[in-house]
Design goal:
By secondary structure, the protein is mainly alpha-helical. It is 89% helix and 0% strand. The protein is rod-shaped. The protein starts with a helix and ends with a helix. Mean pLDDT is 77; it is low at 4-10 and 15-37.
């Protein structure tokens, strides 16, 4: 009896094993026979719908704005451009000659941020050096604000880019859960891949834009502050030279 039960048990196990092998082989054959669909970047953009495409257009616009602002700041926020050596030498020569009007004229001939600060001091020197120093400080603050206007936009871009990326992430996850609830079969896997790619791509794009934008913002802001301090110190040296000349 025991032998009969053992034989029946072994035969049952063998039947189940054969059935499992048949199911496994059928699944493998079906997977191999199914056409492979590869989703590229354009498929991800189109899969996000009108809202997703608007997000990508926004990210592209922020990317172009960040690049333009970085190039503009790199070209304009330079000590050699803001404080021309020729202007410094011309103004010092005029001060050595004791002519404030000539020094002011030199500043008008070479307009710029440093010229504006010098003119503020020269135009108020008759009212006393304390008044001239206050005027120089006010002019320096105004030039600093003008210089930092475009640099501050880098900070705006650096804050907006990851927000748009996060919005794309949320949209991609919403679409992914909607796909799970409404789609079945092979199409579900393809749609899920596109939706999750949308979420990850937008996040990565936002960070790629934000990191250099914020880094450049702090870099050029510190450079601008250094240039402003240099202009103020040079102006005060010129004013001290004028005071000694008297």
């Amino acid at each position: 009896m025991k032998r009969i039960l053992l034989v029946l048990w072994l035969s049952t196990l063998s039947v189940f094993a054969q059935e499992a092998e048949i199911v496994k082989s059928e699944a493998v054959q079906a997977a191999e026979a199914a056409p492979e669909e590869e989703s590229g970047f354009l498929d991800v953009v189109q899969g996000g719908g009108a809202f997703g495409m608007a997000l990508w257009l926004g990210l592209a616009g922020l990317s172009l704005a960040a690049g333009a602002l970085i190039v503009d700041s790199g070209l304009n926020i330079r000590t050699s451009k803001i404080i021309p050596k020729t202007l410094v030498s011309l103004v010092r020569e005029a001060i050595d000659d004791g002519s404030v009007k000539k020094a002011a004229q030199r500043c008008k001939d070479v307009p710029g941020p440093y010229s504006n600060i010098l003119l503020a001091g020269f135009e108020n020197v008759d009212d006393g050096f304390d008044t001239a120093q206050d005027a120089i400080g006010i002019a320096a603050d105004m030039e600093s604000e003008k210089m930092l206007q475009r640099v501050n936009y880098l900070n705006v871009v650096g804050n907006l880019a990851p927000m748009l990326g996060l919005l794309g992430t949320v949209q991609g996850m919403i679409l992914a859960f909607a796909t799970l609830g409404t789609t079945s079969g092979a199409a579900k896997n393809a749609l899920l891949a596109i939706n999750i790619s949308q979420a990850l791509y937008t996040t990565a794009a936002g960070l790629v834009i934000a990191v250099p934008a914020i880094g450049s913002y702090f870099f050029f802001r510190n450079r601008a502050a250094k240039v402003i301090l240099t202009m103020e110190s040079l102006t005060m040296e010129v004013m001290k030279g004028l005071k000694k000349g008297e």
